[in-house]
Amino acid sequence: MIQIEALTYGYHGGIPLFEAFNWETQPGEAWAVLGPSGCGKTTLLYLIAGLRFPQAGRVLIDGNELKRPRPRSGLILQDYGLLPWASVRQNVALGLNVRRFYGPDGKHAPAEALPPANVDTWLKRLGIDAIAEKFPGQISGGQRQRTAIARTLALQPDLLLMDEPFSSLDAPTRESLQALTLEIKAEQNLSLVIVTHAIEEAAIMGRKILLLGQPPNRQAVVIDNPGSEHPAYRNSSEYLALCQQLRSRMEPARTMYATP
Ligand code: ADP
Ligand code: MG
Question: Strand ranges (DSSP E) for 45-184?
Fold first, then answer.
């Protein structure tokens, strides 16, 4: 699905975040990208989304080198990106309306009819149909994130990219949204890449885990997590052991003051 070949990328004036970096995912896989703050997780997601481009190397999706954002890649950001003056229903319909106007290539209105809008289906599936007429300022953080997810799913993505989507939610809300995301991923046969700095979240969401460290990242460190597909994994000793392993392998963020 995603192929990253000899990727080099850094911001002006900084050390490269990625240097000749290779990584590959298969269709239908669930990946968590785990690493400390500042290691380049969001940047990697933007490169996969076609919002930034390699300084060297290539990013391919389904064998095609990315030159622009890809219509079937859905991106969900940490701060939801909802329009405050639009209702939940209008926010969920937003992407569809934009696509209807500009067409799937972002330039031309669609030549053939699009599939019927499935806004109501997604409002129900995310459990926000009862608050569809409310505005973002009137609903909880969990409901806002559900709205953002519904908006993205209404566009029928085959690849879901999520940047720390649950980090500002309380634990029970976070856990229920993690479970719901995995259910929908299986139902819709999506590929998933979820970026997180939280070890527990990576262990729950990632059937495979890409561990990033202090830049430059030169080699993909991949950890297999087959247990994540079993229900009740969160309560297993296997899960606890994995969290411990990840904790010991995750480099702490560089501190300003060197310890003697
Ligand atoms: P993460 O998501 O893992 O916290 P980011 O990909 O956001 O990391 O950022 C990686 C590094 O690149 C950080 O040191 C950050 O300060 C820097 N960085 C991010 N965006 C920019 C930018 N637009 N311009 C310059 N530096 C940036
Ligand atoms: Mg980030």
Answer: 56-61, 64-65, 73-76, 159-163
Amino acid, res. 8: T
Strand order across the beta sheet in which 64-65 lies: 18-24, 2-9, 56-61, 64-65
Q: Among 100, 130, 156, give the residue marking a domain's end.
A: 156
Chain Cα centroid distance, residue 149:
10
All residues at 6 or more sequence positions from 233 whose CB lies less than 8 Å from its CB, including other chains: 204, 227, 239
Confidence label for 65 from pLDDT (cuts 50, 70 and 90): very high
pLDDT recorded at residue 247: 95
The structural domain count of the chain equals 2
User: What pTM was computed for the model?
Assistant: 0.91
Indicate the residue among 127, 156, 185 that finishes a domain: 156
CATH number at residue 192: 3.40.50.300
For ligand 1, mutation pick of 7, 17, 37, 163 (most atoms within 8 Å of CB): 17
Residues 161 and 254 in one domain: yes
- 32 CA → ligand 2 middle, Å: 13
> What is the C-alpha separation between 106 and 234, in angstroms, rounded?
41
Residues 211, 229 within the same domain = yes
Q: Residue 95 belongs to what domain range?
A: 79-156
